[in-house]
Each structure stands twice: as structure tokens, then as C-alpha cells.
Amino acid sequence: AVANHLGVGWDMIKDIQARYLQHCFDKPKLCNLKRIAIDEIYLGGCSGYLTIVMDLDSGAVVEVAQGKDAQ
User: Across residues 40-58, what is the average pLDDT?
Assistant: First the structure.
């Protein structure tokens, strides 16, 4: 709906969202981190994958990274 409303592709919306999340959560607080979830999102074409790490207890996004390499 957002992509259609703005007249852009869905991949652009995903890229904007990923960059926003990266900006907001650039320096995560890891001292109370106990359980994590890891998700990979395929952005398509040349964009590849995003890997998102989330704190399962608080729901906070801990890390957003390009690709799906284990680093």
C-alpha cells in the first residue's frame, strides 16, 4: 500500500525501513541481552539479503546488517 501510494517499488520501501532501523538502533545495549532471534530478509536482485538480530525479551532490534554472512 505504501509503495503504491508513493509510486515506488516495494524494494525501495524495504531499503528505507532497513536504513531507518539501522540509524535508530546503531548502538544497541547488550548488557541485558539473554535471548535473540535472527531473521534474514531477501530484498531481491542486487540488494541481496538483510540480517536482523532481535532481543526476544524486549522485542528491540539489536542489529541490522547487509548480507547473511556469519560475522
Answer: 89
Question: Residue 70: its pLDDT value, please?
Answer: 57
DSSP string, the chain: -HHHHHT--HHHHHHHHHHHHHHHTSS---TT---EEEEEEEEEGGGEEEEEEEETTT--EEEEEES----
Cα 71 from chain centre: 15
* The three three-digit cell numbers of residue 39, written as one number: 531473521
- Say if CB 53 and CB 38 are below 8 A apart: yes
* Dist CA 38 CA 8 (whole Å): 28
Calpha distance 39→8 (Å, rounded): 25
Question: Amino acid letter at 58?
Answer: S
